[in-house]
Write a sequence for this structure.
């Protein structure tokens, strides 16, 4: 080595070694455990208090913190509006991108940029998907005193259903059955979530509703089934629940008589695979996203969480964050012609 180069190395190497202690604390501070220690994580819940989503999210909030590196505090905050779009928009556009905001949102809010008539100000493909607390089966239910006694009856006679919003599943599913399958549902809109719809059904203002998750029904109104107050007229999804299959409750999908109708319903039902999704804003450092995915997966196996879920009659059937991400990507890759027909069909 030339003499000049050896001299340069004698000065350069000590300088690099001296700089290492100063660089190390910065790198250490970026580690999830160091970042989250002593901080507070906001869990944004896209529904009003009292419903199934809120119950799930508050159970998650009580337990996930001890599985996150650094064990931050977790504070649930309700942000209802527009079928979950308000919360999703906040997470995308306003919430901090440092990993201190987590959202419990509707699958319909994830699908809204693809399926909605009015495009929200977010791109669902850019969210960081942390996981889903379960995959879902959705239901159409009617009061037992309603004249319509089955889904087949609903193709011939009118039943009055409550809906929460144009973007939510209660309205979109029922409207699609009217527009694609020829059902005769009369839709009454304006209710703030399934909790209000349930109260309206109790009062006799409406006869039933579609787009209600089985887990929400068991959480909010467990006495309905036991006391024979309701009749489940259809299962909504590509696969039924074993206990409802045994009772002969049909899949609404079975009434689709054409390839186009089946394609529309497949697109509508696919998000049920991530029935309780948890997301973080785009731009969160990858290490923190991965730490949150691992914490969520661990929380779903936590004995305390499972005990709380059992008390609240919540099903825990988790789906991993990477799996949810890939499923969302596949839905957004559907043919434009099917998407357009499905968009039109869900309007009412």
């Amino acid at each position: 080595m030339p003499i000049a180069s050896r001299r340069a190395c004698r000065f350069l190497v000590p300088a690099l070694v001296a700089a290492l202690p100063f660089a190390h604390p910065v790198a250490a501070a970026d580690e999830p455990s160091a970042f989250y220690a002593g901080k507070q994580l906001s869990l944004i819940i896209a529904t009003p208090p009292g419903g199934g989503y809120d119950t799930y999210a508050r159970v998650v909030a009580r337990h996930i913190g001890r599985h996150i590196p650094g064990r931050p505090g977790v504070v649930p905050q309700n942000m209802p509006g527009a079928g979950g779009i308000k919360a999703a928009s906040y997470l995308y556009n306003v919430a901090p991108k440092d990993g201190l905001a987590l959202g419990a949102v509707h699958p319909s809010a994830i699908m809204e940029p693809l399926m909605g008539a009015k495009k929200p100000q977010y791109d669902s493909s850019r969210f960081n998907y942390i996981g889903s607390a379960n995959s879902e089966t959705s239901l159409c239910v009617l009061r037992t005193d309603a004249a319509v006694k089955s889904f087949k009856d609903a193709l011939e006679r009118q039943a009055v259903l409550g809906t929460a919003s144009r973007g939510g599943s209660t309205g979109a599913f029922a409207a699609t059955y009217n527009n694609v399958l020829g059902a005769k549902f009369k839709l009454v809109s304006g209710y703030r979530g399934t909790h209000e719809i349930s109260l309206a059904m109790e009062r006799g203002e409406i006869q039933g509703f579609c787009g209600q998750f089985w887990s929400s029904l068991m959480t909010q109104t467990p006495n309905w089934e036991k006391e024979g107050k309701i009749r489940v007229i259809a299962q909504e999804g590509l696969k039924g629940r074993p206990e409802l299959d045994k009772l002969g409750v049909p899949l609404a999908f079975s009434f689709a008589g054409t390839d186009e109708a089946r394609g529309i319903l497949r697109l509508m039902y696919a998000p049920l695979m991530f029935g309780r999704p948890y997301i973080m804003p785009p731009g969160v450092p990858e290490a923190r996203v991965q730490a949150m995915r691992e914490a969520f997966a661990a929380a779903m196996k936590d004995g305390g969480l499972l005990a709380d879920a059992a008390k609240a009659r919540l099903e825990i059937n988790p789906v991993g964050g990477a799996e949810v991400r890939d499923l969302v990507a596949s839905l957004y890759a559907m043919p434009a012609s099917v998407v357009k027909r499905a968009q039109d069909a869900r309007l009412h």
